[in-house]
Amino acid sequence: MSDIRDQAGLAADPRFGRLLAHVTSKRGTRRWASRGDIDPGDIAALLPNIWIIEIEQPLDPTARRLRVRLAGTQVERIYGRSLNGLYLEEMDWGIYSSRIFHALGRMADDGVGHFLDAAAMIQPRLSRRVRRLGLPLSDDQLRVSHLVLLAYYEFNASAPEHFHELWLDEAVMRP
């Protein structure tokens, strides 16, 4: 059986493998690493492309909100503005918005990692491709409190639209 990291393209782009290795090593025997476990100095080269998403989970699970706590400089350059404090539900992510929100919600609810490779036309003859690894974090080991996302964006004139995703289960995310 092939390694899931290869199926997700993580071996081809070691930046994703580096984040996965960092988070799984910080997690140890726990189900999830915590936000406090993530040492920015250990992943300094990745920081421009990092998102930290806080899961606001009131008593009513249908009222869950996803708020940007940190967006790296490259992420903010792509979006053309500061994203800190924004709710992801209020952002338009194009034709794949509902699928992206569903994936983020599943990461929050089920505590599983996710790899996404999607491209969509954002202007006539201009396509934006994103490759993103998302991993759950938990401050109390009872529920997911944050998501850490590592996203890389490409723009080109001829990329075909696509949406590919791969879910990473707990066994895969073990060191």
UniProtKB/TrEMBL annotation:
It holds the Pfam family PAS_5. It comes from the Bacteria. InterPro entries: DUF1457. This is PAS domain-containing protein.
